[in-house]
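Quick one: structure tokens for this chain, please?
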Amino acid sequence: MDGYGQFVWPAFIFTFVSCVALYRKTRKELQKQEKMFLSEYEELHATKIKSTEEKKTTKEVLSGSSI
């Protein structure tokens, strides 16, 4: 590298370490956001099931009383 290796290799190592650190930080944040999303989705899904069951019960009661 004609004497420029002393500048090129540290720059390469710094860039590589910076990319690895950024990757790890991003991955950690993604996992945190996934947990938050899944917890909110589970609550929404449970509420939806509950309201669907209530609608079925109401429909059964109404159809049973009209006979």
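The helical segments are 5-65.
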